[in-house]
């Protein structure tokens, strides 16, 4: 549905050119909810604004629904943009217009007649749960309701793609959840492709099918959310995952372990700090099975939690395995055979 080919974006900065995006290639399938995550300044806003050519790239091509937007005339681009709705962090509503009036605006601009506008807007307000608020003004509704107006307005032209630029960043956690639920529902019911940018892994975890990690204008990794969460390939991803899932040990525990690992062996036993991630659900008694098989190894569970990623349990444990290195290596292989992702943490800095 969306293809980015070799997108580079340079801006003039005070100390010379800034490369906000560097050679970005990306393909987003029809009906996907695709997330782009990155730290502040990574290039996320630039990337999402490139998708509807609000920002024209210095180099590269943007193809949406088979049309190369970068090659269109201004008129054709205006028409093509009707296929792409957008919602924003600060909602961008007109305060002088009612809820109905805000949603109706793109249709009025397109020259639609009043009766047709009503027939389009009222079901949209129903869809986003704002029928009762249709005559209110933006100052008379909550932040979550404002974003619902933004969503209804973005859907007015019946787009095939919805772009979400940090749409939940200004909202509290509960409202964020309700907006994400709504996005999920319209993705499903309207078969809409959604691309969202965010700096919050929680948002990615809650709704996205796939995710791209952007840093300093480059895509570091792309993959299904579960895969990226289970096996982040880059330090930046790990740090963005942070507390969302238990890739990082709590600092106090790290400090204690550093002392303990310093004097690493007692007799034949060595301490091995392992991170175990359960990819295939946490309902298998894999750990007790391993403990029975490898009774010579002491397993000390240091830290763990169970999260849910896309409705599936996701378990992560930090375990100190103390035993002969060859036996611990065998136990690690045993766990891997049973679908557990095992990683030895060597660096406690
Ligand atoms: N119009 C512009 N002119 C000059 N520099 C720009 C422009 N837009 C973005 N930049 C620069 O490009 C880089 C990427 O910015 P961008 O806003 O895309 O990042 P971001 O990941 O969305 O960050 P944030 O989460 O803080 O909004 C930054 O260094 C920014 O200063």
TrEMBL record:
Keywords: Amino-acid transport, ATP-binding, Cell inner membrane, Cell membrane, Membrane, Nucleotide-binding, Translocase, Transport. Belongs to the ABC transporter superfamily. This is Cell division ATP-binding protein FtsE. It comes from the Bacteria. GO terms for cellular component: plasma membrane. Residues 2-241 form the ABC transporter domain. GO terms for molecular function: ATP binding; ATP hydrolysis activity. The keyword Nucleotide-binding applies. SUPFAM superfamilies: ACT-like (SSF55021), P-loop containing nucleoside triphosphate hydrolases (SSF52540). Part of the ABC transporter FtsEX involved in cellular division. Important for assembly or stability of the septal ring. Pfam families: ABC_tran, NIL. GO terms for biological process: amino acid transport.
């Amino acid at each position: 549905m969306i293809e980015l080919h070799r997108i580079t974006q340079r801006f003039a900065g005070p100390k010379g050119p800034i490369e906000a995006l560097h050679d970005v290639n990306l393909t987003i399938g029809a009906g996907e909810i695709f997330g782009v995550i990155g730290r502040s300044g990574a290039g996320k806003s630039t990337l999402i604004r490139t998708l509807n050519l609000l920002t024209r790239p210095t180099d590269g091509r943007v193809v949406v629904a088979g049309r190369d937007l970068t090659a269109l005339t201004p008129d054709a681009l205006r028409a093509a943009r009707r296929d792409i709705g957008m919602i924003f962090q600060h909602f961008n509503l007109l305060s002088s217009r009612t809820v109905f009036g805000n949603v109706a605006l793109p249709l009025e601009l397109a020259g639609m007649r009043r009766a047709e506008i009503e027939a389009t807007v009222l079901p949209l307000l129903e869809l986003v749960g704002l029928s009762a608020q249709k005559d209110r003004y933006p100052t008379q509704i909550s932040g979550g309701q404002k974003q619902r107006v933004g969503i209804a307005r973005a859907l007015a032209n019946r787009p095939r793609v919805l772009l979400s630029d940090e749409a939940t960043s200004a909202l509290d956690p509960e409202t964020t959840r309700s907006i994400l639920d709504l996005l999920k529902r319209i993705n499903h019911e309207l078969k809409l492709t959604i691309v969202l940018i965010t700096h919050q892994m929680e948002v990615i975890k809650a709704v996205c099918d796939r995710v791209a990690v952007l840093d300093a204008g480059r895509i570091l990794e792309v993959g299904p959310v579960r895969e990226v969460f289970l096996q982040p390939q880059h330090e930046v991803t790990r740090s963005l995952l942070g507390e969302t899932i238990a890739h990082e040990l709590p600092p106090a525990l790290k400090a204690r372990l550093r002392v303990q690992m310093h004097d690493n062996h007692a007799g034949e036993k060595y301490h091995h700090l392992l991170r175990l991630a359960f990819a295939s659900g946490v309902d298998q008694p894999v750990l007790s099975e391993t403990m029975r098989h490898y009774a010579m190894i002491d397993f000390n569970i240091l830290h763990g939690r169970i999260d849910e990623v896309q409705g599936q349990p996701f378990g992560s444990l930090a375990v100190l395995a103390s035993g002969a290195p060859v036996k611990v290596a065998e136990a690690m292989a045993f766990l891997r055979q049973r679908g557990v992702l095992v990683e030895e943490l060597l660096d406690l800095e």
